[in-house]
Amino acid sequence: METIDPPTPPAGPASRAGIPAAAACLRAGGLAVFPTETVYGLGAVFDNLPALARIFEIKNRPRFDPLIVHIADMAQLAGLAADIPPAALALAEKFWPGPLTMVLPKRACVPDLATAGMPSVALRMPRHPLALELIKNAGAPLAAPSANRFGGISPTTAAAARAELGTAVEIYLDGGPCAVGLESTVLSLLEPVPVLLRPGGITLEALTEIAGAVRLPAGDAEHRRLSPGGLPRHYAPATPLRLWQPPHPPPDAGRAALLTPFPAPGAEAFARAEILAPDGDLAAAAASFFAALRRLDAAGAPLIYAVLAPETGLGRAINDRLRRAAADGRAVYS
Questions:
Q1: N or C of the chain: less Cβ packing under 10 Å?
Q2: Are the C-beta atoms of 125 and 98 separated by less than 8 Å?
């Protein structure tokens, strides 16, 4: 077995030189790929309908999947959200800038194309300094899904985004590898008790400390429509992926690759393995998750097996991505 520990990411060329050109491109109706702390985004000015339509076209994204609108300050929040409950303000004070998206009632200025026709909008303030500077220089919030083809592996480097989208996008800003490496947590505040629509970079445990009770969605279609990444199959590599419970390797392990958050008994039976966090750090596992999955997808194995993380903290977000990426859903080989 070839065991590959995730590389230590370089600091990255966090250059601000390209921001004026990127902002000018966005103001003129173009698109720009830019870094956030979660994944790289494919951005357009939030109310430019032709630019938004290009995002859906380039990604081959269905128009019933809403976009997240990225803001740079609280004044932009007030300009986009028709109602901001006290819980939203408390959460923003604690977690913004950061990997938390809040779904709130929208103002009329937010086009239906950005929200899949729903009366709500998904909003977040990214933590990456290049993202915040780009929004400020563009002079408007930016609607931005992940910078990859729809349903595939999210990019956590500029090179991965460029490999996905190529010359379809006018400009790329390189801010180095994404520090969080998983998409933002999506929390709906449309109901008296907030609903966790998508686990992500802010854990359920951290949310409850600020918002009190937070409930999980019932799995109904209406809740799935509110959040990006809500489809049952998403974040998937081209190589079929199945879930595996150690310690007994599957019979085809000798030909297969393995993705595991921590060292796992039985891993030596696989042809190749990516161990996300040899020291057991869930934050490190999350930060390296998509990059490791992308490497395994390119390695040529006919099948990838993946081990679920503990169902707590960031492990809940890792498991959400793995279950959506798995070819046979929640079935686990053990």
A1: C
A2: yes
Residue type, 252: D
Q: What is the 3-state secondary structure (H, E, C) of 138-187?
A: HCCCEECCECCCCCCCCCCCHHHHHHHHHHHCCEECCCCCCCCCCCCEEE
| Residue among 135, 124, 144, 120 nearest 61 (CA) | 144
Contact 288, 202 (CB under 8 A): no
What is the mean pLDDT of the segment spanning 270-287? 95
pLDDT(228) > 90: no
Angstrom distance (rounded) from CA 70 to CA 68: 6
116: DSSP letter? T
Q: Residue 326 is which amino acid?
A: A
Q: Do 137 and 25 touch, CB atoms closer than 8 A?
A: no
pTM: 0.92
Torsion of CA 14, 15, 21, 23, to 10 degrees: 40
Burial group, residue 47, by CB count within 10 angstroms (0-12, 13-18, 19+): middle
